[in-house]
């Protein structure tokens, strides 16, 4: 049997009960149950220092940054859970993208998908800024299906810990994973 596709899951929210992080946890669960052939690992970005290139010493990075970069290097594809802050992606997520982009850029050529939960339009405006950044750092995003969710409309989709509890939304998330899997295999020339 072929090795599973390694997907790194990154949440742009550092909140303990973050709904966006809940989407990553749910993707991990789905990868262990209904979506075959993928493995999702949550990679924490909360310990990354704020970008400051003075912290780079002769091409080496602070230990936390190096560990993060190695996780990306080892990934087949990336799943971003991207909260929308003031019509854009969150500062922690931009910080992580910037650290990964320092030469050699670790994002280059990776397939990726974006999911989000937010207010009014479900965080969708953050997708477009993230996609724009992806042009320069050479990420390749799936286009369909799209996934953005208003987390404030009843009935509740998350519990108080930020865990996704809505079966219909889980099904949508499942289709994101299936699409990311197919696109990853396609880019790797395996299908
Ligand atoms: C500084 C700040 C700015 C925000 N701006 C937006 C926004 O522009 N659009 C939106 O839909 N939600 C906005 N929100 C709401 C968050 O996206 C929303 O609370 C989201 O669910 C937080 O995600 P989390 O549960 O993963 O932490 C903002 C929240 C904060 C703290």
UniProtKB/TrEMBL annotation:
Swiss-Prot/TrEMBL keywords: Flavoprotein, FMN, NAD, NADP, Oxidoreductase
InterPro entries: Flavoprotein-like_sf, FMN_Rdtase-like_dom, NAD(P)H-dep_reductase
Domain NADPH-dependent FMN reductase-like, chain residue ranges per copy: 5-150
Entries under Gene3D superfamilies matching the protein: 3.40.50.360
GO molecular function: FMN binding; NAD(P)H dehydrogenase (quinone) activity
Nucleotide-binding keyword on record: no
Cofactor (UniProt): FMN
EC number(s) per entry: 1.6.5.2
Pfam families: FMN_red (PF03358)
UniProt key word Flavoprotein: yes
A GO cellular component entry from the record: cytosol
Catalysed transformations (reactions): a quinone + NADH + H(+) = a quinol + NAD(+); a quinone + NADPH + H(+) = a quinol + NADP(+)
Origin: domain of life: Eukaryota
Biological role stated in the UniProt entry: The enzyme apparently serves as a quinone reductase in connection with conjugation reactions of hydroquinones involved in detoxification pathways.
Complexes and interactors: Homotetramer.
Family in the record: Belongs to the SsuE family.
The protein, known as: NAD(P)H dehydrogenase (quinone)
